[in-house]
Amino acid sequence: MIRIAHLADLHIGANGAGYTAGAAASAAPDARSYRDVAALFDRVLAGPTVGDGARSCGAVGRGTYDAVLIAGDVFDRAHGEKRGEELFLGFLSALAAQGTRVAVIAGNHDAENGVLWQLDLPAETSLLGRARPETVTWPHLGVAVHGQSISVADEQQDLSAAYPTPVPALLNIGMLHTSLDGRDSARTCAPTTLTALEGFGYDYWALGHVHARAVLGSGRVAYAGGASSRSTEEDVPRGFLEIEFSSNHPEVTAIDAVLVG
């Protein structure tokens, strides 16, 4: 059995305009961004949940996750404060100390701020490249992860079209920061279709970009949601997805790490 945490759209260093409407909005990083991301990181480090169904931030962990996937927009568009970098690197270092493998792709915000590419990441963390899809394999887990980082903020190409076929005898996971067909996103990013993704035959697709949690189609494609509410429309519990592979189909559980309100 393999348990993986799927995170996305952390937006570390998001400004006050992401939370406050009207004249009170600020261009400066908002403390809630750091607070909410720290709470999410603490919940991931606590390990997988006990039992079935959605869990809250009070859930008791058991052990550690085998791997963590971060599907883009780690940092917000305009902000790369040192405290944000230290928060992220501290999280990765703690995962490395637990023996947890990590795969990260850059999202459109990361493409704008460039912070991810300046960090000295732990050896256990793989930042997948921007030029073409890359594959990282974790033989001890029997897992192959395929992904490509966003290289330009307004990526209009279907990056998924160049993703490789599944690696035989391994659990295959795709990572993509995408608006899919655009129905749930105001900003186009690496557009593709659910049908195209499911056609690859991967065991799971870890998506980022859309901030609403969603498990799509046959249940093998999902958006993890985000760490913080960046508008009133997003004023719902935030967190990540826990993916359990114990059979031929992933079991997906929503983990509420940040309770909003």
Number of domains: 1
Backbone CA Rg: 17 Å
* Average pLDDT for all residues: 88
The CATH superfamily is known as: Metallo-dependent phosphatases
The end-to-end distance, rounded to whole angstroms, is 36 Å
Structural class: alpha/beta
Instruction: Please state how the strands of the largest beta sheet are arranged side by side.
Output: 4-3-2-1-11-12
Got a strand count?
A: 12
Count of individual helical segments? 4
Per CATH, what is the topology?
Purple Acid Phosphatase, chain A, domain 2
At the first level of CATH, the class is Alpha Beta
Quaternary organisation: single chain
Could you characterize what this model shows?
- The chain has four helices and twelve strands.
- With 261 residues, it is α/β, with parallel strands linked by helices.
- Strand 2 (67-71), helix 2 (82-98) and strand 3 (101-105) form a beta-alpha-beta unit.
Short structural summary:
By secondary structure, this protein is an alpha/beta fold.
What secondary-structure arrangement, pairings included, does this model have?
Elements lengths: L1 E6 L23 H16 L20 E5 L10 H17 L2 E5 L2 H6 L11 E3 L6 E5 L4 E5 L23 E7 L16 H5 L5 E5 L5 E3 L4 E3 L14 E8 L5 E8 L3
Parallel strand pairs: 1-2, 2-3, 3-4, 6-7, 7-8, 8-10
Antiparallel strand pairs: 1-11, 5-6, 9-10, 11-12
Helix pairs in contact: 1-2
Identify the notable features of this structure and list them briefly.
single chain, 261 residues, alpha/beta, Purple Acid Phosphatase, chain A, domain 2, 6-stranded mixed sheet, globular
